Amino acid sequence: MSEITRKPLSWFKVKPQVRKSFDEEKLRRLGASLKVRQFMPVLAQPDGLLIAGECRLRAAQLVGLETLEVKIASRQLSDSETKLWQVQENVLRQDLTGYEKWVACTDLLGMNVEWRERDLAEHLHIDPSSITRWLSPSRCIAEAQDALKQGLIGLSDCYVLAKAEKPDRQQALLALKLSGASRDALEEAGRKVRSASAKPADKASRAQLVLASGIKIIVSGASICIDSLLEAFADAAKELRKAREQNLSIKTLQAVLSNKAKKRSGAMNPLKTLGLLVGRGPFVVGGVILSAALFVVSGLARLLRTLIPAIFSMLPPEWRHVIVLASQLPTLIPAVWSHFKTVRESCSHFPA
C-alpha cells in the first residue's frame, strides 16, 4: 500500500462487496464522526475501485463530505485478493452478519477452487472450526438460508441443522427454532434426531481408535455412535487448544475437564445416591437413613412454603424461620454422608 492520500468522493468506484445491508441511522452517526476526524482510511485500487470502506464512503456521501482519506494499492489486486481484504477487515471488527460471512466464504472458495476450508481459514487468520460453521448454510435447506438472510436464525443454528442432513429433519428443527427455541434446546433436539436415525448396530458403549500416528484413543459412554464421537472430538479439540494457549499440563487439563463435567451434570440426585449406597455396611446404612430423613423433611417444608403460602404466612415468625431452614436441608446431605464415610474409614482400621 502507498502513503495515505485524499481523494474526492467522485473518484471512487464501487462494486458489490461483502456487506449486503446498511443501517442509515448508523451511517449518519458515522458521517458525523467523519466530519470531526477520519480515524481509518478507506482502501482502493489504483483505478479508484473501492476495496474496503464502503460504509465510510456511504456515510461521507450522506452527510455531504467532499473528500476521504484513502490508501491506494501499489498494484491492481485480483478479485480474490480484493474479497480477502474485505472479509478480513470486516471480520476483525466483527461487523458482518452470519449471512454475509457465509456468502463471502463461498465466493472465496469459488474464486480459488484449489482451496480447502483449512486454506481459507489460514488466509483469513481464523480457526478452521469457525469456517466450518460459516459454511454450514451450504448444507442447509433453502428455507434455512432465507431465514439466515433475514436474521431470524444465526450461523450456530445453521450448523445444528446441517448436522441433521435430511431435509425433513432440517425443516422440523427450523420450525422449532423459529417458534422461539433456545440454542441449547435446538442442539438437544438435533442430537435426539441424529440418535434416532442411528441404527442400533452403529452404537456401542466403548470405542478404541488407533490412529496412523500410533496414538490410541479410547472412548466410553452410553450409546456411542459416529455423530456423538464427532461432537466429542470437536469439543475435545476446543479444550485442547485452550489448554495449549494456557500452557496447561495433561494432568491439569484432566482435572479441569473433570470439574466442568461435574458442574454440567449438576448435583447428583439424593435418592439415587442413597439407593446406590444401601447395603455397604452399618455406617453407610445409618448415613442413608439420616440423609433420607433430611430429604423428606426438606421436601415437606418446601411443599408448605410454595404450595400452601396462605398457611405459611399465618404461622408465627419463629416457625416460619424453622421451615425455611428445613427446606435447605438437602445442602447438608453431602456433609452428612462425608462424615459417615470418614467414620467408616476410621473404623475399618480396627479388627472385627
What does this structure look like?
A four-stranded mixed sheet has the order 1-4-2-3. Strands 5-6 form a two-stranded antiparallel sheet. With 352 residues, it is α+β, with helices and mostly antiparallel strands. It is 61% helix and 9% strand. It contains 17 helices and six strands. Residues 267-284 and 346-352 have low confidence and may be disordered. The protein has four domains: 4-127, Alpha-Beta Complex (Conserved hypothetical protein from pyrococcus furiosus pfu- 392566-001, ParB domain); 135-197, no CATH class; 201-265, no CATH class; 270-347. Helix 14 packs antiparallel against helix 17.
Task: Lay out the secondary structure.
Elements: E1 4-8, H1 24-36, E2 42-44, E3 50-52, H2 54-63, E4 67-72, H3 79-92, H4 98-111, H5 117-124, H6 128-134, H7 142-149, H8 155-164, H9 167-178, H10 183-197, E5 204-210, E6 216-224, H11 226-245, H12 250-265, H13 270-277, H14 282-307, H15 309-314, H16 317-327, H17 333-347
Helix pairs in contact: 1-2, 3-4, 5-6, 8-9, 8-10, 9-10, 13-14, 14-16, 14-17
